[in-house]
Design brief:
Layout (H helix, E strand, L loop, with lengths): L1 H4 L2 H22 L7 H4 L18 H21 L5 H19 L1
Helix pairs in contact: 4-5
Length: 104
């Protein structure tokens, strides 16, 4: 029975049910919403919004995210393997991929 509950689809269904119950309970406790202009406007601390965009785009984020994804998955793969020549070759490839991301 314990193995059955730990199966990913069953655990996901249980968690989904718990989230639904908690969400429904929160809706019962919440005060009814009132429409106001303050809720639909953005808060800018009383200052005028900047003329140019503050964020140049998502490109720097994706480079950093890819770096950490390669790093973490690579270490996970190396940690679960034995110390062989294949793991050494994989480590060299991992280092080259990370250097390529760092240097651009």
């Amino acid at each position: 029975m314990e193995d059955f509950l730990l199966a990913p689809p069953i655990a996901f269904a249980i968690y989904l049910g718990l989230v639904g119950i908690l969400s429904g309970f929160g809706r019962v406790l919440a005060k009814p919403s009132e429409t106001s202009s303050a809720k639909s406007s953005t808060y800018a601390s009383g200052e005028a919004p900047p003329v140019r965009s503050a964020v140049p785009g998502y490109t720097p984020f994706f480079v950093i995210a890819l770096f950490f994804a390669i790093l973490h998955l690579g270490v996970l793969m190396l940690g679960s393997s034995n110390l062989s020549s294949t793991a050494g070759i994989y480590l060299v490839g991992l280092i080259l991929a990370l250097l390529a991301l760092i240097l651009g």
